[in-house]
Amino acid sequence: QVQLVESGGGSVQPGGSVRLSCVASGFPFSADGMSWVRQTAGKGLEWVSTISSGGRTTTYADSVKGRFTISRDNAKNTLFLQMNDLKSEDTGVYYCANDGRGARGQGTQVTVSS
């Protein structure tokens, strides 16, 4: 079955950086576009970023553009989200998602606080 397992969350000060990872299994990872979404207190469930199957095309929410970078390693079935210049409003639970298969991981908490 499809499994998505996120890791890398934690607590960081404003302006800091965090790198999230998501290991996928149960489907042909290199064939599917992948996304990150987040659940925040202020906005509920929010789309963050999407990457195409081959990694050439990436899109970002305006709120994270220029600060976050999505990438993938198809040889390792792993999706990444590099988060820089973090702000308090980035606090939330971050989920790795495969929209085409209706799958989402269990999430990893990111807390940005001084």
Helices and strands in order:
Blueprint: E1 3-7, E2 10-12, E3 18-25, E4 34-40, E5 44-51, E6 58-60, E7 68-73, E8 78-83, E9 92-98, E10 103-104, E11 108-112
Parallel strand pairs: 2-11
Antiparallel strand pairs: 1-3, 3-8, 4-5, 4-9, 5-6, 7-8, 9-10, 9-11
Describe it for me?
The protein is mainly β and 114 residues long. Helices cover 0% and strands 53% of the residues. The chain contains no helices and 11 strands. Strands 2, 4, 5, 6, 9, 10 and 11 form a 7-stranded mixed β-sheet that branches. A 4-stranded antiparallel β-sheet has the order 1-3-8-7, with no helix packed on it. The protein is globular and about 40 Å long. It starts with a strand and ends with a strand.
Short summary:
By secondary structure, the protein is mainly beta.
Q: Helicity level, as a percent range?
A: under 10%
Report the end-to-end length measured between terminal Cα atoms. 40 Å
Number of strands: 11
Task: Report the C-alpha radius of gyration, rounded.
Answer: 13 Å
Number of helices: 0
Judged by helices, strands and strand pairing, the structural class is: mainly beta
- Low-confidence stretches are none
Task: Quote the average pLDDT.
Answer: 97
Question: What is the percentage of strand-forming residues?
Answer: over 45%
Give the biggest sheet. 7 strands, mixed
H/E order of the elements? Answer: EEEEEEEEEEE
